[in-house]
Amino acid sequence: MALEQERFILDMLAAWGDGRDGSRPDIERIMATFADDAIWQLWVPGGPVIRGRDALRREIERQMSYVTHNRCTTRHIVSSERVVMTERDDYCVNNGVPMPHSMVAVYELDEHGLICAWREYLDTADLAKKKGVPLEQVGGPNAGSTSTH
After folding, report:
1. Range of lowest pLDDT (15-19, 52-56, 69-73, 143-147)
2. Average of pLDDT values for 124-137?
3. Contact 33, 114 (CB under 8 A)
4. What is the pTM of this model?
5. The CATH number of the domain where 24 resides is what?
6. Whose CA is closest to 140, among 125, 127, 130?
7. Domain that holds residue 69
8. Predicted confidence band at 147 (pLDDT cuts at 50, 70, 90)?
9. Residue 25 C-alpha from the chain's centroid
10. Alpha-carbon gap, residue 124 to 128, rounded angstroms
């Protein structure tokens, strides 16, 4: 178990917000956790892969243009020196629609302790249904576009 690495990831998750009205992500605090060449796969399998700090910032800002009330609640966390995994119950409001969702996220850390890879495993069909996407469209090109973090 690597407590320092776990605290690092938990602090980054806290920077997304506390779920209250008006709470907004601290983008600078979040960005400080990424290596220059970090990658973020928004959902596994098949989700887009965002590469590099500039692209990561743009993706976070894009999501924050329609997502509010962010909160990450960690159920379980496991770690080693270079990997931290969380099981989470996250919450947000996406274009006015409450979107509670569960996920597992894997964070790989580089030699400086910064996030160099981040992969999220979640049920995009569940999120699509919450958005009102008809079941026959789930799995289509827009079904998984609900990623929040």
Report:
1. 143-147
2. 78
3. yes
4. 0.86
5. 3.10.450.50
6. 125
7. 2-137
8. low
9. 12
10. 6
